[in-house]
């Protein structure tokens, strides 16, 4: 139950942040060009950064699993 309250508080804080940073800014990313409220642009940037970290972390975990599997096979021998 306490977990739900923390999530709600976080969502409220994000909403307040977006509403307080409503001035529009020009955003250019790869082939996309447009204007967004600053709070929304920063939120998108944070989410994209988190996604990149997640993908890099998942790739590293997969790499370590492959290495561990090879070591297990080598240690067991024929």
Notes on the structure:
With 78 residues, the chain is an alpha+beta fold. It has one domain (2-76). Helix content is 74%, strand content 15%. It has two helices and two strands, in the order αββα. The protein has a two-stranded antiparallel sheet. Strand 1 and strand 2 (32-37) form a beta hairpin.
Write the layout of secondary structure elements.
Blueprint: H1 2-20, E1 24-29, E2 32-37, H2 38-76
Antiparallel strand pairs: 1-2
Helix pairs in contact: 1-2
Backbone structural class:
alpha+beta
How many distinct folded domains?
1
In percent, how helical is the residue content? over 70%
Strand content: 15-25%
Average of the residue pLDDT scores: 89
- List low-confidence stretches: none
Q: How is the largest sheet built, in terms of strand order?
A: 1-2
Total count of helical runs of at least 4 residues: 2
Question: For this entry, what is the oligomeric state of its chains?
Answer: single chain
Total number of strands? 2
What is the approximate shape? elongated
Biggest sheet architecture = 2 strands, antiparallel
Radius of gyration: 21 Å
Sketch the topology as an H/E string, one letter per element.
HEEH
- End-to-end span in angstroms? 53 Å
């Amino acid at each position: 139950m306490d977990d739900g309250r923390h999530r709600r508080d976080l969502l409220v804080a994000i909403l307040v942040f977006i509403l307080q940073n409503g001035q529009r800014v020009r955003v250019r990313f790869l082939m996309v060009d447009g204007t967004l409220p600053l709070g929304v642009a920063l939120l998108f940037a944070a989410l994209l950064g988190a996604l990149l970290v997640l993908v890099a972390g998942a790739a590293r975990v997969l790499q370590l699993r492959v290495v561990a599997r090879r070591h297990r096979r080598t240690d067991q021998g024929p």
